[in-house]
UniProtKB/TrEMBL annotation, chain A:
<feature type="region of interest" description="Disordered">
    <location>
        <begin position="569"/>
        <end position="612"/>
    </location>
</feature>
<keyword id="KW-0472">Membrane</keyword>
<keyword id="KW-0812">Transmembrane</keyword>
<keyword id="KW-1133">Transmembrane helix</keyword>
<feature type="transmembrane region" description="Helical">
    <location>
        <begin position="517"/>
        <end position="536"/>
    </location>
</feature>
<feature type="compositionally biased region" description="Basic residues">
    <location>
        <begin position="601"/>
        <end position="612"/>
    </location>
</feature>
<dbReference type="GO" id="GO:0016255">
    <property type="term" value="P:attachment of GPI anchor to protein"/>
</dbReference>
<dbReference type="Pfam" id="PF04113">
    <property type="entry name" value="Gpi16"/>
</dbReference>
<protein>
    <submittedName>
        <fullName>GPI transamidase component PIG-T</fullName>
    </submittedName>
</protein>
TrEMBL record, chain B:
<dbReference type="InterPro" id="IPR009600">
    <property type="entry name" value="PIG-U"/>
</dbReference>
<dbReference type="GO" id="GO:0042765">
    <property type="term" value="C:GPI-anchor transamidase complex"/>
</dbReference>
<dbReference type="Pfam" id="PF06728">
    <property type="entry name" value="PIG-U"/>
</dbReference>
<comment type="pathway">
    <text>Glycolipid biosynthesis; glycosylphosphatidylinositol-anchor biosynthesis.</text>
</comment>
<keyword id="KW-0337">GPI-anchor biosynthesis</keyword>
<feature type="transmembrane region" description="Helical">
    <location>
        <begin position="319"/>
        <end position="338"/>
    </location>
</feature>
<feature type="transmembrane region" description="Helical">
    <location>
        <begin position="446"/>
        <end position="468"/>
    </location>
</feature>
<feature type="transmembrane region" description="Helical">
    <location>
        <begin position="416"/>
        <end position="440"/>
    </location>
</feature>
<keyword id="KW-0472">Membrane</keyword>
Length: 612, 495
């Protein structure tokens, strides 16, 4: 009875806690559509969950926040976590900046809570847990290959103290990771409405992986509850970035609609969402493009941010009465015009120079199109199988004419099979310049079992990350650090706008051994060693003797018989105590070869005995 | 007149070697040679030295990464060189090479003198018909010149100098240790061998021949016997080189041998330990042990070279790796040390040369500089085999004069032609198949490994042949050139 009473008490208290949490939790779903100057359509989904009591108690009721993720975060002391799974490359030069940047493949970085002792172990467990959660190969991340960047990847959340203990940070990329349906399904399961209702119902695997660029992102950080920032909430941002090439999508038409991009229309908002909005960036409408949106948007918002004006057509799904299926479509008017693409302030490319599989070099080119100097942080993470020569690092601008000196530099040389080569530096890019960063490396020769299947496909090298603060918002779409939802970026003018760029990943073909030959190689090498051992063994254990060549050619059995005979005759002779042997041909030596001479003599004795 | 002739040709050799090196330094071949895997290995390449020096200058511990494998003492020297003498580096390397050549010359002179004296002493025991085999005054004068020529005009050594590998430094240490060995100088040989060991570990084996050399030289001088008739008959009894006869003296002086060898080896280890402590002090920790010696012993970098390790351990099954690492390292370090020391104890310089050769063949990261060094020592024994011209011809690139059978040679370099041909062919074929594999990508690793095997086999034949020839000559000197055995023609074999 008492047990029952206690149980009821616990149950009621737990439900009470859950109820109290429910009121503070929020879920927002947003979709941003933007026709890029190159004609591609960029669609960005952001699902933001704010968990009021997140991070306080481990067993707190989750309500809107996915429980599986919250358990992982609590268990491994994670303060902040950023995971991205990306297919394709974001082309900054043509497309501007995305809302969230991600390198090709998988990228994971996390800040652990202050006071976490075994960060490496927690990091391994975290990556393994996430691997299970998202069906990605994150379990291949190991602590040895995960550096702690010194200047890049600063924490984005709200923290009580400003101290940044960099040993609590881990960063890792898996450039070879392929992103597909198997990652999207668990991603959607974390959403409060799954993919049943709301904007997430547009995430149709077949259409999403058709895109030129697709990127899933999970970003967890503590965020201020209000403007005073006395308390924090746990913010989970689930993002999906897609870039469609309309030409490839079919009908050779520039027109787009939900049906064309996602294959389905929208049935309605997620009932659990506090807001459910669609933003269409119409800034370039009537300048670069000329299209009609249908249906008419709920409102037009003018966002004046950092001197640049952006017009958004906003559809508030919560307020829209949807009878059948809701679909936004753009119908172009007039002839197709190829517009001039003005590249963003900072963009970068990276490639490998050199030929053959012996020596090579990595070149990273960073363009600064601004009229002023810009400070950047470059983070290079080169895997151990490309041993890099730090002394060959050259940072030059304007075709090698100007040598730049970084004002902070951090280099950690790699170790074979255990640690990558990490280079990080802060440098000021001269105005209107192209800066070239050059590093030489050698191609490694691995053990035959270290090559992956299809060894001649090559090895991927992760992207370099460039972090900088932009002076203005041209081509910039990012959400400000103090905001959670995309709507917070409207009219959000700041002094600078932080951005992280990721370069291309590289494919390096390492020289391969012959995989079919282990036995042959082992046998041949051992034979050569034996070729030395045999003669040296002979030379050191035997003595020179003058022998009759006719006897020498005798077989093994004959030799054995002769030895037996000689042994027998010797013993009989010893009994008889016969006189010494007849005359010797070889003069008996007195010193070193004395023993040798006597041996010859004894053999001759044998022979004499035999002949008699 | 003869002496001035000799010194004139010696000076000519130095001048010509200098000019040749200066030319090669300024030629377009320099960059090609520097990049060759046969010349620059991970443990001796100058690029990695520069890397280590720059890392240290920028406050990064060079031993925390896997790019630098020189000892901290070496690092201190190289950083001074790069800091203050960067423009003069080629000059310094050429000078070091010429000094190495001269040290080898002095070694050869000393050794030839010793051989001559020993021959005089032993003459009484020699067979009567071996006059032609004996070392002549001409040999004594010429052979040191051959040694210098074989060193300075050896293409392997030339490549090594031009590539500025740190093998130049280890070669000068080795050459100095050979000189000190020939002179029987305990301190000198201990210092030079410990420096060489600190740099590349494998020269540690040389302490045994050094201890034997010192042992011979420090034998207590026998009290001069009273002037009797016997003294008059037995010549030069007082000469220290008479002490080279171990059999007669070993029994008498076993305590001397034990104490002398123990002192030398003990002194060596004291020096090596103090150098290691100095290294620890310089680098601020023992991390360098793993980076320098661990790297050489565990062979983590499988970049191809002229040795046997790289492909063998590329293709090795993981669970056998440790076993074969032990086997191969023992093969290079300790396997032949004791038996060869016992066998060739009468001639410790030959022992030292063959040990140097064996380690150059079987060490984990051999380079052409190592091979060139022991090859250039071999003309010291040019009198024991027929093809004196063999070395000269090969190393002075005068390939037309191959063999010149000399009438007075009985001991035979059985595989001479094979070795010579293999050296030439592998030296040409190696870079070719390397290009095919790495650049043209039309061949694979097996081709290059095959060439490496042939090169190793050629070296093995060379060393075993020289040891055998030496033993045969010693035998024939005492037993005569006649091969008659019991009225029939016998055959000289190891049995």
């Amino acid at each position: 009875m008492i047990v029952w009473a206690v149980f009821t008490l616990i149950l009621s208290s737990v439900s009470a806690l859950g109820q109290s949490g429910l009121y503070g939790d929020e879920f927002h779903e947003e979709l941003v559509l933007k026709q890029l100057p190159s004609g591609h359509v960029y669609s960005y989904f952001q699902f933001t969950t704010l968990w009021e009591n997140g991070g306080d108690q481990p067993n707190h009721h989750c309500h809107l926040f996915p429980q599986s993720l919250s358990e992982v975060l609590h268990l491994y002391n994670v303060d902040e976590m950023h995971l991205s799974l990306t297919g394709g490359l974001w082309r900054h030069e043509n497309w501007g900046y995305p809302v969230v940047s991600a390198p090709p493949g998988a990228e994971l970085w996390a800040w652990f809570k202050e006071g976490t002792h075994d960060v490496d172990k927690k990091w391994t467990l975290l990556s393994n847990a996430l691997s299970g959660l998202f069906c990605a190969s994150l379990n291949f991340i190991n602590p040895q290959q995960s550096p702690s960047p010194k200047y890049s990847f600063a924490p984005l959340g709200a923290y009580g103290s400003a101290s940044q203990n960099r040993s609590l940070l881990r960063y890792s990329t898996l450039p070879r990771e392929i992103v597909c349906t198997e990652n999207l399904t668990p991603f959607k399961k974390l959403l409060p409405c799954d993919s049943k209702k709301g904007l997430s119902s547009l995430l149709n695997a077949g259409n999403i992986h058709n895109a030129n660029y697709h990127s899933l992102g999970i970003h967890v950080r503590p965020q201020c509850k209000d403007e005073n920032c006395h308390e924090t909430v746990l913010e989970l941002k689930q993002t999906v970035s897609l870039v469609y090439d309309l030409i490839i999508l079919g009908q050779e038409s520039r027109d787009w609609s939900f049906r064309k991009l996602f294959g389905v229309g929208l049935a309605g908002p997620c009932p659990l969402a506090k807001s459910s909005k669609i933003y269409v960036d119409c800034s370039t409408n009537a300048t670069t493009f000329d299209y009609n949106l249908s249906p008419d948007p709920t409102e037009f918002i003018n966002s004046n941010r950092g001197g640049y004006n952006t017009v958004f057509a906003v559809y508030d799904i919560k307020k829209t009465h949807i009878i059948n299926m809701f679909s936004v479509s753009a119908t172009h008017k007039g002839p197709r015009v190829q517009s001039i693409i003005s590249p963003p302030v900072i963009h970068a490319t990276r490639y490998i120079v050199g030929y053959g599989q012996e020596h090579g070099g990595i070149v990273t080119k960073i363009h600064n199109n601004h009229w002023k100097e810009i400070d950047i942080t470059l983070f290079e993470n080169i895997p151990w199988f490309l041993p890099t020569y730090y002394h060959t690092l050259k940072i030059t601008a304007n075709g090698g004419k100007q040598v730049l000196k970084p004002y902070a530099k951090h280099y950690l040389p790699g170790r074979d099979r255990s640690r990558p080569y990490t280079l990080e530096f802060l440098v000021t890019l001269p105005p209107r310049s192209v800066t070239e960063i050059y590093l030489e490396f050698d191609y490694s020769f691995l053990k035959w079992q270290e090559y992956p299947p299809d060894a001649n496909h090559g090895f991927y090298v992760g992207a370099a990350a460039i972090t900088t603060l932009l002076p203005h918002t041209k081509n910039y779409t990012g959400v400000p650090i103090d905001g959670s939802t995309f709507s917070s970026s409207i009219n959000a003018s700041r002094d600078t706008y932080p951005v992280t760029l990721h370069t291309e990943i590289l494919l390096v073909t390492l020289p391969t051994p012959d995989f079919s030959m282990p036995y042959n190689v082992i046998c041949l090498a051992c034979t050569v060693v034996a070729l030395a051992f045999g003669p040296l063994h002979n030379h050191t254990t035997k003595r020179l003797q003058m022998l009759d060549p006719s006897e020498e050619t005798k077989g093994v059995i004959a030799n054995l018989r002769q030895r037996l005979n000689s042994f027998l005759t010797q013993s009989t002779k010893a009994k008889e105590q016969s006189s010494p042997a007849p005359s010797e041909v070889i003069k008996s030596p007195q010193k070193e070869e004395a023993a040798c001479g006597s041996k010859v003599t004894s053999r001759k004795k044998d022979r004499a005995a035999k002949s008699s | 007149m003869g002496l001035s002739n000799l010194s004139r040709s010696l000076i000519l050799e130095y001048v010509f070697a200098f000019v040749l090196r200066v030319w090669l330094y300024n030629s377009e071949f320099k960059t090609t040679i520097i990049g060759r895997v046969e010349v620059s290995t991970p443990v001796n390449s100058w690029k990695r030295v520069t890397e280590g020096v720059v890392l240290q200058k920028d406050g990064v511990n060079p031993y925390s990464g896997d790019m630098f494998h020189e000892s901290p003492v070496g690092l201190a020297i190289y950083s001074q060189l790069i800091e203050y003498a960067s423009p003069y580096l080629p000059g310094i390397f050429i000078l070091l090479d010429l000094i190495t050549g001269h040290l080898l010359y002095l070694t050869a002179v000393e050794y030839m003198k010793h051989l001559m004296r020993r021959q005089e002493e032993d003459k009484a025991e020699f067979s009567e018909d071996v006059k032609d085999l004996l070392l002549s005054q001409k040999d004594v004068e010429r052979q040191p010149l051959y040694v210098v020529a074989a060193y300075l005009f050896n293409p392997y050594i030339l490549f090594n100098t031009v590539a500025q590998t740190t093998t130049v430094f280890s070669n000068i240490c080795l050459a100095a240790s050979f000189l000190f060995m020939a002179k029987g100088n305990r301190w000198g040989s201990c210092v030079t061998i410990s420096f060489a060991t600190l740099q590349s570990l494998y020269p540690i084996v040389l302490i045994v021949p050094a201890a034997i050399c010192v042992g011979y030289h420090t034998l207590p001088i026998k009290k001069p016997q009273k002037l009797t008739k016997a003294r008059a008959i037995a010549p030069v009894k007082l000469d220290i080189y008479q002490k080279m006869l171990p059999k007669s003296l070993r029994s008498v002086n076993s305590t001397h041998w034990i104490t002398s060898m123990a002192t030398t080896i003990g002194l060596f280890f004291v020096m090596l330990t103090s150098l290691l402590f100095l290294s620890c002090h310089l680098s601020g920790g023992w991390e360098f042990l793993h980076s320098v010696y661990g790297f050489m012993l565990l062979v983590p970098d499988l970049r191809p070279n002229i040795g046997l390790f790289w492909y063998f351990f590329t293709e090795m099954f993981e669970h056998f790796r440790l076993l074969y690492l032990w086997a191969f390292q023992m093969n290079a370090l300790v396997l032949y040390l004791l038996p060869l020391s016992l066998r060739t104890r009468r001639d410790p310089i030959l022992l030292a040369a063959s040990l140097t050769g064996i380690t150059a063949m079987f060490k984990s990261y051999p380079s052409l500089g190592d091979v060139g060094f022991y090859l250039s020592l071999l003309p010291m024994w040019a009198h024991i085999f027929p093809c004196k011209k063999f070395f000269l011809s090969f190393f002075s690139l005068n390939l037309l004069v191959l063999f010149n059978k000399e009438k007075n040679s009985v001991a035979d370099l059985q595989q001479g032609f094979i070795v010579l041909a293999a050296f030439i062919i592998t030296s040409v074929l190696g870079p070719t198949v390397w290009h095919l594999w790495i650049y043209a990508r039309s061949a694979n690793a097996n081709f290059y490994f095959g060439v490496g095997l042939a090169f190793a086999i050629a070296q093995i034949f060379l060393i075993t042949d020289i040891l055998l020839s030496y033993t045969k000559r010693e035998f024939i000197l005492r037993h005569g050139t006649s091969t008659l055995l019991h009225g029939k023609h016998g055959k000289l074999v190891l049995a």
